Amino acid sequence: MTALLDAGRPDTTGDGKAAVPRTRHRGTLRDRFPGLALPALIWYAVFMIGPVVAMFVIAFLSWPGMLTTPTPAGLDNFARVFSDETFWTATANSAIQIVVGLPIMIGLAFLLAFYVVQKPRGHRVLRYLLFIPALISAPATAMVFYAMLNPDGLVNGFLRPLGLEGNEWLADPTTALGAIIAVELWSGIGYSAVLIASRLDGVETEIVQAARLDGANDWRLAWRMYWPIARDFIGVVAMLQFLSMLFNSAQTVLLLTQGGPENATTTLAYLIYRKAFVETDLGYSQAVGVVLFVIGLLGMWAIRRTLRATH
Amino acid sequence: MAQRAAVARRLPLRDRIGSITSGTLAWIYAALLVIPFYYFIVSSFKTNEEIFESPLAWPTTFDLSNFTTAIQQADLGLAVANSALTTVAALVLTLLLALPASFALARARGRAGKIVESVFALGFLIPSFAALFPTFLLAAALGLFHTRTFVVFLLPATALPLSIVILTSFMRTIPRELEEAASMDGASSLQVLRQVYLPICVPGIATVLLLNFLSFWNAYLYPLILIGPDTAQRTIQVALPTLKVDAGTDYGVLMAGTLFTLLPVYLVYTVLQRQMQRALLSGAVKG
């Protein structure tokens, strides 16, 4: 996203006038188009932009199965999507996931980052550990949590000696979505904290010491000094995690619950997957894709507004 | 520490809670990271009964039979080979596409260069996950459905925006005079790239390689959908979840398989810890 900002800045290296006549021809050609970027651009257009454009087209087609011929459907798919109860359940689940999960993730990650940059005893170990979730693939994480959350697993093994009732965490409609969010938090907090810490490391120690001398304690230091300084960067981290929750969490759902029990963990991203690859209702699936794309843009805009730099 | 604790004692309750919270939170989270790790590592040496009886107990024997069962049952050896092949081929292709592109963008002075650069910079907005089905159609249209080849083609495309943004910012730091001196000597663009830019960009290339190694090795949904369940072609990430059976999963075997999947990543992380951390940081900062 820094690149996004950079791309618009005025060119300060332009020195076209200084070019000697002999090289001018090559110079102007290069000015017109960076030819060596062409292969990458074409590759990107074919494999990434193409499918997204196709998504927008398929959303307006009636295509009830791979082997049938698609026919134009106008807005029918969207009408079907918006009148489908499952879609609204999925929307509610995604909303809960984001509204509950994201602030907790970012808030805790910030506090962790703040603690790590104070260099307390053991901060090196802590930094090493915080990277762990960023290295593990979605299937490996899911398998570990599957083993921990099963009725005979580690979580219930902890609770039973305490006299608490165990639970089938992933099979109980009241806890399944919470379990998915917990997996997301487990893997997201560490990486976000490391990212935020990399920004907080840049805060000058003089300012911090001066504030300490003025009697500022940790709590005030964290929220009144570090938070405003890192605010716009935390916004960037929040956007990354927002997109990851909105889209990639479908992998966790697929691996752990397949959207069940009774749609309790069907999120919008998982609904796209299920409609496309399980029920092969392709128009419906891609219509939800378009909706999710719009939600993604709106969410990023909202995060940017909430966490933009205040100074 | 003691002094700070003393100061903390005199503060109002809300502030005192504040100073204790972040430290406590940090170590609770650290414990939550370590316990699952410990649990699944010891579990991979146990039977189901032992896991259920005493989940955190040290294994009685370091019997490797769970590992051999996991490797046989899910064909993990072949899956690792497939993952390695796919990852390496995709990494090479990524560099072949991203290096010339970054070189061109770093030197471009016109408006076109800026437009191309913003196309890549906006890449993170592409909801490639939502477009999984059209990607699947593309594979079918190219006649590459259910092959590793298509994933080798696709993965670099997912990695191009970030790779190009990182490499371009690296190449921008190289003074133009160096390149002009080489051009005067009659070197072609590609020679300038190879002889002047590449040696200076080694740290940037290392960052891009490590970052993409992680995301290619760990890729799950694309290989699942595009390569499919064929054991001869499937990657390790697709093979691993097949050890989870709806009725009667052998958790020891499942955890042994998981450990086996993570080994290559941990090997690389242990050897290249600093570089890897830097790569992961620049991955988001630049993205």
Concise structural overview:
Chain A is an all-alpha fold and 311 residues long.
Determine Rg of chain B (CA atoms, Å): 24 Å
Instruction: Determine and state the CATH class of the domain at 81-228 and 279-285 in chain B.
Output: Mainly Alpha
Shape category of chain B: globular
- How can the largest sheet of chain A be summarized? 2 strands, antiparallel
Q: Please give the CATH architecture of the largest domain in chain A.
A: Orthogonal Bundle
Percent helix range of chain A? 55-70%
The N- to C-terminal Cα distance of chain B equals: 38 Å
Pfam families (chain B): BPD_transp_1
Membrane topology (chain B): Multi-pass membrane protein
InterPro entries (chain B): MetI-like, MetI-like_sf
Subcellular location (chain B): Cell membrane
Structural write-up:
Chain B: Belongs to the binding-protein-dependent transport system permease family. Chain B: This is Carbohydrate ABC transporter permease. The complex is a heterodimer of chains A (311) and B (287). In chain A, 70% of the residues lie in helices and 1% in strands. Chain A has helices at 2-7, 21-32, 38-58, 76-82, 85-117, 123-130, 132-135, 138-149, 154-159, 176-200, 205-213, 218-256, 268-277, 282-306; strands at 61-62, 71-72. Chain A has a two-stranded antiparallel sheet with strand order 1-2. The relative contact order of chain A is 0.13. Mean pLDDT of chain A is 83; it is low at 1-25. Chain B is mainly alpha-helical. Chain B has a domain at 81-228 and 279-285: MetI-like (MetI-like fold), CATH 1.10.3720.10. In chain B, 75% of the residues lie in helices and 0% in strands. Chain B has helices at 2-10, 13-43, 48-53, 65-73, 76-107, 111-121, 132-141, 148-172, 176-184, 189-200, 202-218, 221-227, 236-239, 251-271, 273-285. Chains A and B meet through helix 1, helix 2, helix 3, helix 5 and helix 6 of A and helix 2, helix 3, helix 5, helix 6 and helix 7 of B.
